[in-house]
Amino acid sequence: MPYNSYESPFCTRYASPEMQFIFSADKKFSTWRKLWTALARAEMELGLPVTQSQVDELAANIYNIDYDIASEREKIVRHDVMAHVYAYGEAAPNSKGIIHLGATSCYVGDNTDIIIMKEGLELLRQKLIAVISNLSAFALEYADMPCLAYTHLQPAQLTTVGKRASLWINEFLSDYEEILHRIDSLALLGSKGTTGTQASFMELFDGDGKKVTELEQKIADEMGFSKVIPV
What is the helix (H) or strand (E) element at residue 83, kind and residue range? Predict the structure, then answer.
């Protein structure tokens, strides 16, 4: 383990292996490739010159990431997204001309951030369910065991261990409901681009705004989102 670079206790001490993977380079860059594949598929379905074989090639190489190629290319172009477009093109040579077609860097960057947030929240939701279930069993087991309650930092009247555990459960239920709200309210950025005008897609689709809107919703559907940011 190297000791000459920054590390965070959130990773080394507190995070689960599952959460560490969600925030890993493999997750980030494979999600970029999933977004590029979804973009290509939507563009093909809406009539742009993208073929099924190209979409299939992109899909087959989502996890075939050569970090050395990307790193060397970034030294030349000084741009992480373009470096990974190049690396993806090396893995899928018949599709390199349509990767990232019409998109800007935030198409993969911002959308991936939202996807990672959603998956992190989903993991917390699952873990909260497990904690609430275990505490519920504990509360029922000790429902009749007497203990002192506390108020103002001092002992008060009698209660039970199970009753106290039910108060902890109530706190976790509040957290669970908040996480559900956050998950439900998350919207994908879509294909709007850095300035939000979608001008490149308007040009690709010859000014057909309906197709631009369809493109965005197709991408959102493939990535598991019911809505996109409207502006």
Answer: helix 80-91
Q: Answer yes or no: are the C-beta atoms of 171 and 102 closer than 8 Å.
A: no
pLDDT tens by residue, the chain, 231 residues: 567 878 888 888 899 999 999 999 999 999 999 999 999 999 999 999 999 999 999 999 999 999 999 999 999 999 999 999 999 999 999 999 999 999 999 999 999 999 999 999 999 999 999 999 999 999 999 999 999 998 898 999 999 999 999 999 999 999 999 999 999 999 999 998 888 889 999 999 999 999 999 999 999 999 999 999 988
Whole-Å CA distances, 157 to 37, 65, 129, 142, 150: 63, 62, 31, 17, 8
Q: Where are the beta strands (DSSP E) in the chain?
A: 146-151, 154-160
Do residues 169 and 135 lie in contact, with contact meaning Cβ atoms separated by under 8 Å? yes
Instruction: List CB contacts of 52: < 8 A, sequence separation 6 or more.
Output: 44
DSSP letter at 188?
Answer: B
- What DSSP element (H or E) covers 87? helix 80-91
Q: Which residues pair with 150 in a beta bridge?
A: 155
Structure tokens at 24: 């890993």
Question: Tokens 């890993």 identify what position?
Answer: 24
The token pair that represents 64 in the structure block: 């075939």
User: Which tokens sit at 131?
Assistant: 């904690």
Global model pTM greater than 0.90: yes
Exposure string (b/e) for 112-138, b if CB count within 10 Å is 16 or more?
bebbbebbbbeebeeebeeebeeeeeb
Which residues are paired to 159 by β-bridges? 147
User: Which tokens is 128 given?
Assistant: 């909260």
